[in-house]
Amino acid sequence: KGFCVLKYSKSIFVTTDIENSQNISQLKDELDHLRENYSNLSVGKAKLQEEKENLTSVITKLRKHFPVDWYCNVSNQSTLEEDCRPCPWGWELFSTKCYYFSTDTLSWNDSRTACRKQGADLVIINNRTEQEFISSHTQGCEYWMGMTDVAVEGTWIWVDGTQLTEGYWSAGEPYSCENEDCLATTLGVNDVKNWNNIKCESSVLWICEGSSLPLSP
């Protein structure tokens, strides 16, 4: 009988040791799993921090090109709710671009400077549809556009550095006259073909073209 009790007690100890070993092994596995999760979380945190810094950089750059005050206006003073639009206030949206038709006159160089201060440039015509839009607004008045042949007489270059491929010149234009090196719409001509070359020092109206701000519907 005493032998049976001893044998039973020994069996209990062996069973307990096995269970403890299993528990320790399980705890080690759980610890390894926790360490792996912690490592993954650390990597994920670092990636999120990097993405945050990248987004902050993008937002900063966007604000330089798209100052919020140009596109948004406080519509409710009590809640400070803002009414935002794809173009700066006073500009017109056409396709994906914004256009500003000035009410004052400047030389070609000064008008370009005025456009660039607003994150834009003098207008470049890319197709007939855009030219039709522009001519419908100029209404026979002279407006500067973004093209000259200052560098080489007769070679017309847009302000983005590209060369003219399709023009909308008025009859008899461009007239090869000394110092008439800048493009403007023709005074008194209310037609799609309304381009004219005049002296860059002339003081006329001007048209700016800039990117529109993408807004969610």
TrEMBL record:
This is C-type lectin domain-containing protein. It comes from the Eukaryota. Keywords: Coiled coil, Disulfide bond, Lectin. Residues 24-65 form a coiled coil. The keyword Cell membrane does not apply. InterPro entries: C-type_lectin-like (IPR001304), C-type_lectin-like/link_sf (IPR016186), C-type_lectin/snaclec_domain (IPR050111), C-type_lectin_CS (IPR018378), CD209-like_CTLD (IPR033989), CTDL_fold (IPR016187). SUPFAM superfamilies: C-type lectin-like (SSF56436). Residues 94-209 form the C-type lectin domain. Gene3D superfamilies: Mannose-Binding Protein A, subunit A. CDD domains: CLECT_DC-SIGN_like. GO terms for molecular function: carbohydrate binding; pattern recognition receptor activity. One of its GO terms (cellular component) is external side of plasma membrane. The keyword Disulfide bond applies. One of its GO terms (biological process) is immune response. It holds the Pfam family Lectin_C.
